[in-house]
């Protein structure tokens, strides 16, 4: 897959360093819109990762930053 991101021509190489970034390359590289989130954790050691994810998702859905999804049919939006 060739990167068409002219601002960051080495993005494909950098993302190839970690398998977790494969998701970005497949699903988000050619996205029409992107958002950036800044998280500030005051006690990251004692806060479970799932609790952080739940808060981020609920906030983004509540404020309509992300589309709602149907968990029974992940390929469709509500």
TrEMBL record:
Signal peptide: none annotated. GO terms for cellular component: Golgi cisterna membrane. It comes from the Eukaryota. GO terms for biological process: cell wall biogenesis; cell wall organization. It is an enzyme of class 2 (transferase). It is found in: Golgi apparatus, Golgi stack membrane. Keywords: Cell wall biogenesis/degradation, Glycoprotein, Glycosyltransferase, Golgi apparatus, Transferase. It is a single-pass type II membrane protein. One of its GO terms (molecular function) is galactoside 2-alpha-L-fucosyltransferase activity. The keyword Glycosyltransferase applies. Its EC number is 2.4.1.-. Belongs to the glycosyltransferase 37 family. May be involved in cell wall biosynthesis. This is Fucosyltransferase.
